[in-house]
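Justification of resources, computational component.

The compute hours requested in this renewal are based largely on the per-chain cost of generating structure records like the one below. Each record pairs the submitted sequence with a full structure-token output. That output is archived, and it is also reused by downstream analysis tasks.
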Amino acid sequence: YCMNNLFDSEESYINALRIKPQPQDRLLAERLGIVYAKRKSWRDAKTVFLKVCKERTSTNAWFYLGLSLVRLGELPAAEDAISQANILDNLNPQTWALNAILCLNYGQKRLSQACFALEQALSLGLKDLMLLEELGDMLEAQGLFSEAVRVYSLVSALIKTEVQAICGNYGTDETQDSDPAEVVDLKRNRGLVLQKLGKIYQNDSFKENDIELAISTYKVAIKMVHGVNNKQNIALMLQSLLTQVNRDHEVAQFKNYLPD
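The structure output for this chain reads:
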């Protein structure tokens, strides 16, 4: 479990829970449910956490039950579970973040509630990269560009801090051959987030539209993303934006990524 070996963890927890009489460790079932959640086996996770929530009081179990129900599209039941988690601990930033995601699933009808829950999550120090990026994507889809920029910027900053913690201050934006696999993944993810930020910065519907900021953001992103298509898409964006601001001479540095 601690090594994130999900399949072996699942088998071990299932075998442990089959022992008669059952072990007294109350975390066994909860950890099995978390393994299912990490594997995105949402129906199995829902079944496990429903049982855990009936047997004992656990903020974590109510949170994961709510998460499973959101993923399954069972929004009314998810709201009940998230509310229970919030009653037990209203200072948990992940619960507030999940509440915001729930509200955003309802679209325009509950945007004010979503923004309130988002503010609570951020003020309480939300650092869950998965939840933050999902929130950014949903906010951007709803046209809440300022909020999306705030969330994406936080994701980028958190990833950069994590990379520096692993590599020290010598870590660079560009992926290096000497980078550990964990750092490679972090940099790639940050590159994708910066790509999303650049897209918003150049969007005419964003009230703080800033082509210069879009250009500088894309320049960092292109060093970090992986895949020919991603690099080519960013290079094409840079070519267009640099031409708009009469800086065509800078396009040459990205010619390797541009289509022939």
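The domain at 1-90 is CATH 1.25.40.10 (Serine Threonine Protein Phosphatase 5, Tetratricopeptide repeat). The two ends are 48 Å apart (CA to CA).
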